[in-house]
């Protein structure tokens, strides 16, 4: 036998097909693992975004309820806004801006020296709709929030002002 015959009969080592098959299986396994990790990450992001939308809606409703319960503040509603007016020029106005999906609370309140102080708070970004109906001292509030996964969350409440 010649050296060439010995080399052809040597079974030590891997063939090109075996190496290629191993690489393909390894890449497929790594791709599947990456897919699972990304799905878990997206799920956590959606849950935290949904929780933020729910928390934001509760914050907006709680602010409106607190304004409604201020003694002497009379409510009035217009499309995309709700206003509470009091004596001495005091007022709180909640305005929905559909362009940037936010609700702004503008308030004018008397300080200790009887001077009107203005302030503004913006509740950003996830409000899909803001509807208020006022009947006497009864205020019906409906707020729809957008969640990151394109679902909606709706909150509604009825509150009576003390005026």
Stretches with pLDDT under 50, minimum 5 residues: none
What's the alpha carbon Rg, rounded to whole Å? 31 Å
Shape field: rod-shaped
Q: What fraction strand?
A: 35-45%
Content-based structural category = alpha+beta
Report the average pLDDT across residues: 83
Strand order, main sheet: write it out.
Answer: 1-2-3-4-5
Briefly, what is this?
The chain is α+β, with helices and mostly antiparallel strands.
Question: What is the secondary structure topology, with strand pairs?
Answer:
Blueprint lengths: L2 H7 L6 H53 L5 E5 L2 E5 L5 E7 L4 E9 L5 E8 L3 E9 L2 E9 L5 E9 L3
Antiparallel strand pairs: 1-2, 2-3, 3-4, 4-5, 6-7, 7-8
Characterization of this structure:
- It comes from Paenibacillus protaetiae.
- Keywords: Membrane, Transmembrane, Transmembrane helix.
- This is Prepilin-type N-terminal cleavage/methylation domain-containing protein.
- The protein has about 160 residues and is of the alpha+beta class.
- It has one domain.
- The chain is about 35% helix and about 35% strand.
- It contains 2 helices and 8 strands, in the order H-H-E-E-E-E-E-E-E-E.
- Strands 1-2-3-4-5 form a 5-stranded antiparallel beta sheet, covered by helices on one side.
- A hairpin with a 2-residue loop joins strand 1 and strand 2.
- The longest helix has about 55 residues, at about 15-70.
- The radius of gyration is 31 Å and the shape is rod-shaped.
- The N and C termini lie far apart (about 110 Å).
- The mean pLDDT is about 85.
